[in-house]
Structure formats: structure tokens, C-alpha cells
Amino acid sequence: MSEIKITASEVKKLRDITGAGMMDCKKALKESEGDFDKAIEFLRKKGQKVSAKRADREAKEGVVRALISDDGTKGVIVKLSSETDFVAKNEDFINLTNKFAEIALNIFPDTLAELLAAEFEQGLTVAEKVAEQVGVIGEKIELADYQKLEAPMVVSYIHMGNKAAVLVGLNKKDDNFVEVGRNVAMQAAAMKPIALDKDDVDASIIEKEIEIGKEQARNEGKPEELLERIAMGKLNKFYKENTLLNQAYVKDNKMDIRTYVKSADKDLVVTGFRHVKLG
């Protein structure tokens, strides 16, 4: 079997994604036969601090909008993608995104496919309206994401001028909790948690983190019988960094988000969140 040839541009691409050194990136790509996901995992196992900003380097343009129902119990986020920032800043494009969000809030579909199949106006579906705009604007337009959330109280936050949006659900409705919900939503936008709590993290992610933790400890020369305990310690750190309720609150890192929410009301609970961003 011939050796996979790794190009300089591929090495640079991996370096841009991970922030690792050029030689480390080249070795990782060779070891993983050019598979970028496997190369990233290889770097992590070797103890490299890999940047989590993978999506940022290929960020598409577009508009992300969030809407909340009048009674504050339902929220939706839609993302309409475009190729250029020029299109994304066009008032008609922003208005179209708002219209799609209004339709989503009105019918509250379970999936993006259901939203695309919904009626837009004058006999057109949402999907057909998107296709029409491709012809009008002359570049690729895509209704790329749709998320919904329902709770006794839903709070929204639009981040960075329509480039990201967050919904946060709370178990109790009170005007005094709007600021709490908004602060939690801002936390999600800034720190990009992958799940609400430990139990919500996908089992495959946990398995991979434990394996990476063991390999890191093994490479540091730790005894084999201690690898499991060390890996579980690293997993707890992973939870604190990547699950919303266990993250340190960005406005006061002496407490986590769960504690911050309880400081407003001992019975207040975050029931869920949704985060959609360009990229």
C-alpha cells in the first residue's frame, strides 16, 4: 500500500483548525491517512491543546433569528445561510429570515423538513421560496437550521448582530427571571456548551473522552492501573467546561450556572437550551 501524500495546504488547514504545530499536524495527518477528524483525535491523544473553534474557519454567512411566542412559552430559531456577507446584510434577506421564523413559530414544526414543506404564501412552500431566492439573488441560499424550545418560560438572545441566537427554557414564569434567562443564554452563546448537564452528553462522546484521557495519561508514563481513575478525573473537567449547568458563570467564575440560577430562586431550573450560529 502506497503512503498517503499529505500536502502543505492540508497541514496548514489542520493547523488553522487546531492551533497545533506544523510538524505535529503533518504527523497526525499521516497517521490518520488524511482523515481530519482522526488527525484531531490523534493530536489530542498526544496531549496537544486542540482549539475547539473548528467551525469558525469555514463560517458561512447568513442570518440567525430567534422569536418567542406572545405568552413566552415557545421559542424558535431559524438560520438562513448565504455565500456572502453582502447578501446577509440586505434588508430583504433579513426580512425573509424573519418571515420564516414567524411561520416556524406559528406552526411549531418538529423538524426542519416539516418547516421546509410548510406553506409560505401564494401556493409556494418555504423550500420553494428559498429556491426562488437562489435565482433572484444569484448565489446559494439555504434554510440551514431550525430549532424549537417549549417551557413555562422561554428567553431568547441574539448574538453578534444576527450571527447567533440562543433560547433558554425555565421551569417557572416570572418577569424577574428574564434577566436570569438572558444571562444564561449569553453564557451559552459565549462558551458553546455541547449539552445542558452531564446526563445529556452523548455516550459516544463520553467514551471517546475517556479513551483520550487514558491515552494522555499513558503517554505521560502513568501506571496502567491508574489510567481509569485519571481518565475519569479528566472527564469531570470536560463536563465542567462543556455542559451548561456545570460551566463557571462568565460574569462570576466563583459559581457555576446551576448555582447562579438558584441564587435567583431556589426552585428555579433551566429545562433546556438551543444554540444556533453561523458556520
What is the topology?
Layout (H helix, E strand, L loop, with lengths): L7 H11 L3 H10 L4 H10 L15 E8 L5 E9 L2 H4 L2 H17 L4 H6 L1 E3 L2 E2 H12 L4 E9 L2 E7 L4 E7 L7 H14 L11 H17 L7 H16 L5 E2 L2 E5 H8 L5 E8 L2
Please, could you describe this protein's structure?
With 279 residues, this protein is an alpha+beta fold. Mean pLDDT is 90; it is low at 51-59. Helix 2 crosses helix 3. The chain has 11 helices and 10 strands. Strand 6 and strand 7 form a beta hairpin.
Number of strands: 10
Coarse shape: flat
Oligomer: single chain
Order of helices and strands: HHHEEHHHEEHEEEHHHEEHE
CATH class group of the domain at 59-171 and 267-277:
Alpha Beta
What Rg do the Cα atoms give? Answer: 22 Å
CATH topology of the domain at 59-171 and 267-277: Tetrahydropterin Synthase, Chain A
Q: What is the CATH homology-level superfamily of the domain at 59-171 and 267-277?
A: Elongation factor Ts, dimerisation domain
Described by strand count, sense and barrel closure, the largest sheet is: 3 strands, antiparallel
Indicate the CATH architecture of the domain at 59-171 and 267-277: 2-Layer Sandwich
Gap between N and C termini, in Å?
A: 37 Å
Low-confidence stretches: 51-59
Query: Roughly what is the average pLDDT, rounded to an integer?
Result: 90
List keywords for this structure.
Tetrahydropterin Synthase, Chain A, 3-stranded antiparallel sheet, Helicase, Ruva Protein, domain 3, 279 residues, alpha+beta
Explain briefly what this protein structure is:
With about 280 residues, the protein is an alpha+beta fold. It is built from 11 helices and 10 strands.
